[in-house]
Amino acid sequence: MSSTTPLLDVSGLTKHFPIKGGFPIKRTVGAVQAVDGLDFQVAEGESLGLVGESGCGKSTTGRLITRLLEPTGGKITYRGQDITHAGRRDLAPIRSEIQMIFQDPYASLNPRQTVGKIISGPMEINDIDPEGGREKRVRELLEIVGLNPEHYNRFPHEFSGGQRQRIGVARALALEPKLIVADEPVSALDVSIQAQVVNLLQKVQRELGIAFVFIAHDLAIVRHFSQRVAVMYLGKIVEIADREDLYGNPRHPYTRALLSAVPEATVEEEPRERIRLTGDVPSPINPPSGCRFRTRCWKATEKCASEAPPLVQVEGNKPGHLTACHYPETAGTVPAPRLSKDPEAAA
Amino acid sequence: MFRFLVRRILGAAVILLIISALVFVLFYAAPRDPARIACGKVCTPETLELVKKNLGISDPLPMQYWEWLKGLFVGRDYTSYGHCDAPCLGYSFQSREPVLDTILDRFPTTISLSLGAAVVFLIFGVGTGMLAAVKQGKPLDKIASSASLIASSMQIYVVGVFATYLLVDQLHLLDRASYTPFTDNPGKWFSGLLVPWLVLSLIFTANYTRMTRSQMVESLTQDYVRTARAKGLSRRTVFFRFAWRGAMGPIITIFGLDLGVLLGGAIITESTFSLQGLGMLSVKAVGTNDLPILLGVIMVAAAAIIVFNIIVDAVYALIDPRVRLA
Amino acid sequence: MSTPFLSVRDLKVHFSTEDGIVKAVDGLSFDLEKGKTLGIVGESGSGKSVTNMAILGLHDPRNTALDGEVLLDGKELVTATEKELEQLRGNKMSMIFQDALASLSPYHTIGAQIGETYRKHTGCSKKEARERSVEMLRRVGIPQPDVRVDDYPHQFSGGMRQRAMIAMALVCDPELLIADEPTTALDVTVQAQIMDLLKDLQQEFGTAIIFITHDLGVIADIADDVLVMYGGRCVERGTKKEVLQTPQHPYTLGLLGSMPSLDGPVDVPLSPIPGSPPSLLNPPSGCRFHPRCAFAGQVAGGRCSSERPALEFVDGRAAACHLTPEQKRELFSDYAAARTH
């Protein structure tokens, strides 16, 4: 990712939602600091996972990248073009290259449109006529996402939750996008169906070379799907690294706590190390000074309250592994995970 | 709550100011001679001269509006007609009386009519709606549901005339509609308004029955109702302590709107029952081109609707603690 | 052999709907002892929540047909009157739900809602009930309980609401607690807190817990025994270790294969279960899992689609599957190898 320009380059990305209040006349009295100074890149064909708990700003980030929201500050560059404040007209060509998949497969499909109409919608809007016609393309897409092309004329309610999410994927693929922002694409689905959709997305990413920003709260699924992962907390990235490093050598206390809190479907002979965070995530309206995690961190000192730690390659990190912490965890305390390309070898 | 009231009252003042300015412009900027109109149908040249002078017709429009506004706060002198005390809504040169006096004379009739009917239909409507919700699917529910459907398609002038004919003229059960001030004789006030109240509520009750029923049925499926049952509370307790509150929010909102409908519909109600309220007053004022009265009625009606809405919002907040008044 | 604390035998819950009879639970049996946690796993529509609503008798009798036997401490619940059930609910048995915000009344303070349960079952004064509420809030770890007791649910954070809900369920020291996906809507760090809390409270009071979830990870953390449900029936039952390490039913196997783990292989596809959960209005014949089962073809004579497999005990394990133990050992071994690394 060093010499070539990344597909997506985000720097200092900030989104503050104003809060109206005051007396007797309402005015802006504060802001929800939903996203506050994010820096990251997404290379072509790469999947970047964004994880974090509710209120960490991961969904807002997704909406900023797709420019469903306009950033308050910072810069978003897509293939060298600054789209931070691009207007409707400038965005139009880019909109077809950046697509979004939403969480709720029930709410994000128009119940009064047939599947064919839903999937060909993006082509109509952008006035694109693929070779062989739109209907042929839709049938191809249905095939790709594992649905019966004969279901072209059916309505969304005739499909199950997993199938609807497949329709959402087909719609996102209609314009041959370069980047798909998937916001919790599987969290509304049953476990057995989740795996179907994850496999589908993985196939799409590999075979079509589409880059993903994969937003999810499920750490295991993010690890499975994304080559690089960023952990967010209260509007900031606290740690970003290749998945091997992030899951195997977490340096930020929050990453560590998060990983240790994930329940795993295995019965261990000796219990895993567990870090229990106390309390709740503070309000993004009035986030803690300095390091935002300090109110729940067992290592916090005065320095953490006065000085926000920069997101840097702290000592012991491999290149590309950035951690925002004054007192990073000792490198390599967690046994390196078994990462294998081959299930037989893993056994 | 205090902040809410202050803000809403300030907001109301702004709205009333805008309404008055709009009405003022519409009336007085019309291509006809406003003085001639204000003077009335029987108008001598002398009177016309006086009206012109008192209305300040020669002044530019903003100046006239300013005079009218000023009158609201400090009163206004209408030379030979006399003084109009603050708050002065204007002066009717036809009835030779300050507008406010005329309106205050008629206002209690309309308010008694509307609010009285509202009380009756709220009690009956919400009551039968709740009953229907308890007896979901049973005969009582079905009767209430279909009866309310028929009743809600009725019109005041049909039902009103029919009810007067049947209950008053034929069966002599109730008194003919009339208005006696409450302070004079509460009994007569009540018996005189009973027929219009019943007729009005027959039509409105139906809506409230259906709405209450569906809201109750909806709120009985809420998760917190299930929790309450899981705690060991009886169906009855759950119904009266939990479910109704969920149902009331939307009903109160609609009620606030309906109060406006009642006031706006006063014209029909009052003419059906020959009651001398604001509705009839405005009908008469239109007929005689009495602009100052019309302006006054509009302002009072607007103010009443705004006040009702503030009250409704405050009540909503009392019922639902999640609603923050701001 | 003494009777178990909770014993469910051949429980059936059928709903009559406009489209026909929905067999939401179709012959379910299990036991639970005091101080133990039974995890019930299943996907949406598996009947796991319906079962537990039935234990509390919360289904609307107008459209629900209950059959079978539920014995709580020797007391039969299926035939119990509404009055008898009201005495038990919130008192001897209580329940917590997934969405605490929706499950708590938005119109009453937290304290009022906790105290209400206590007053209903002890008949104490308002003042005593309030004191008890504060004590319960303290016990579930709400800071400043004497102040927060007067808050409304929307003023609490998600984790605190679930704590308050637990306080409300435990206010009368119930002997059976049914937790219906209590942590599903919570963030992982808060989920971990809530599960620790439940474990601590169980140790303290010896409560029997039925923990309903779709997440096998949560089961691994909290349950002693596991019951896997599919299409309204139990497909497998056993200790946590048995079920997670050596599953005996293809569905359990499929669930485990669908979940990526924090240290499993990446860059290989997950092994999901094909298809979708069955419609209970018109469920598949025979074994309800057979249309999605990878091994249905291995059973001779098409029995999977014609004959309902009984929940059979083999080597102390219960599974409802027509495959023979030998077949399972052979067919499931690849998987078992992958799981144990």
Summarize the structure.
The complex is a heterotrimer of chains A (347), B (326) and C (341). Chain A is of the alpha/beta class.
As a percent range, the share of strand residues of chain A is: 15-25%
Helix content of chain C: 25-40%
CATH class of chain A: Alpha Beta
| SSE run of chain C | EEEHEEHEHHHHHEHEHEEHHHEEH
Average pLDDT rating of chain A: 88
What is the terminal separation of chain A in angstroms? 33 Å
What is the element string of chain A, with H for helices and E for strands?
Answer: EEEHEEHEHHHEHEHEEHHHEH
- The total beta strand count of chain C reads 12
The proportion of strand residues of chain C reads 15-25%
Stretches of chain A where pLDDT falls below 50 for ≥5 residues? 334-347
Q: Please compute the radius of gyration of chain C using only Cα atoms.
A: 21 Å
Structural notes for this entry:
The complex is a heterotrimer of chains A (347), B (326) and C (341). With 347 residues, chain A is α/β, with parallel strands linked by helices. Chain A has one domain (46-68, 87-290, 323-338): P-loop containing nucleotide triphosphate hydrolases (Rossmann fold), CATH 3.40.50. Chain A has helices at 58-65, 88-95, 115-125, 134-144, 161-173, 191-208, 219-225, 243-248, 253-261, 302-306, 343-346, and strands spanning 8-21, 27-42, 47-51, 73-78, 81-82, 98-101, 179-183, 211-216, 228-233, 236-242, 322-323. In chain A, β1 and β2 (27-42) form a beta hairpin. Chain B has helices spanning 2-28, 34-39, 45-55, 61-74, 99-134, 139-152, 156-170, 186-220, 223-230, 235-264, 266-273, 278-287, 291-319; strands at 76-78, 82-84, 91-92, 97-98. In chain B, the strands form two sheets. In chain B, strands 1-2 form a two-stranded antiparallel sheet. In chain B, strands 3-4 form a two-stranded antiparallel sheet. With 341 residues, chain C is an alpha/beta fold. In chain C, α4 crosses α5 and α5 (126-139) crosses α7. The longest helix of chain C is centred in the middle third of the chain and has 18 residues, at 188-205. Chain C is globular. The model of chain C has no long low-confidence stretch (mean pLDDT 90). Chains in contact: A-B, A-C, B-C. The interface between A and C is large, with 50 and 55 residues.
